[in-house]
């Protein structure tokens, strides 16, 4: 496993580690009920944003003690989302998750970020498999998973108790030797 050179840069994005001052920018969209609807926690408060960013700051690579990578997505100098990658039960298995400010949706920015991190997951970290789990009602996230070459492996019915209700979970994954998405 090699170290990842940060920040990652794509044509339109800078993907970089979290900084304390990101709390206010992330709060801008994580506090929205439409964003929090399908996430594990409700809308963020300012205090929660600071705590969450503090937890994410040390997550700078799978080769660190944190065994996780937490990145902020910047577009034209504005924080528009976040993306995480973390190992699971085996060091060559990981999970990916993302959140994008809906005001920046529909431009392919989330796919651009996810492709960059998936590329690093396989090429830099030598992962075998990266999975994404999501609320089955989150159709935008499912479309994104497909767009970046992940295959739907499961639809688990009412398997997760979240925010007072049983919810379905979709599981997508991509293997290192899967062909790249078109």
Automatic annotation (TrEMBL):
Superkingdom to which the source organism belongs: Bacteria
Enzyme class, one word?
Answer: transferase
PROSITE patterns in the cross-refs: GNAT (PS51186)
UniProt keyword annotation of Transferase present: yes
Q: Which Pfam families does this chain map to?
A: Acetyltransf_3
Give UniProt keywords alphabetically: Transferase
MF annotations from Gene Ontology: transferase activity
EC number per UniProt: 2.-.-.-
Q: Residue limits of the N-acetyltransferase domain? A: 13-177
The identity of this protein, by name, is GNAT family protein
From which lineage does this chain's organism come?
Answer: Bacteria, Bacillati, Actinomycetota, Actinomycetes, Pseudonocardiales
């Amino acid at each position: 496993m090699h170290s990842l050179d940060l920040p990652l840069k794509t044509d339109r994005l800078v993907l970089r580690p979290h900084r304390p001052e990101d709390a206010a920018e992330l709060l801008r969209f994580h506090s929205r009920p439409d964003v929090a609807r399908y996430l594990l926690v409700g809308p963020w408060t300012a205090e929660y944003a600071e705590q969450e960013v503090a937890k994410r700051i040390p997550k700078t690579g799978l080769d660190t003690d944190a065994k996780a990578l937490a990145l902020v997505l910047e577009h034209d100098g504005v924080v528009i989302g976040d993306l995480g990658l973390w190992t699971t039960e085996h060091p060559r298995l990981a999970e990916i998750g993302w959140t994008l400010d809906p005001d920046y949706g529909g431009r392919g920015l989330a796919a651009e970020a996810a492709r960059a991190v998936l590329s690093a997951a396989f090429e830099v970290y030598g992962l075998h498999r990266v999975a994404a789990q999501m609320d089955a009602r989150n159709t935008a996230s499912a479309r994104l998973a497909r767009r970046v070459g992940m295959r739907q492996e499961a639809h688990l019915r009412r398997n997760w108790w979240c925010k007072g209700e049983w919810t379905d979970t979709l599981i997508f994954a991509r293997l290192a030797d899967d062909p790249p998405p078109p």
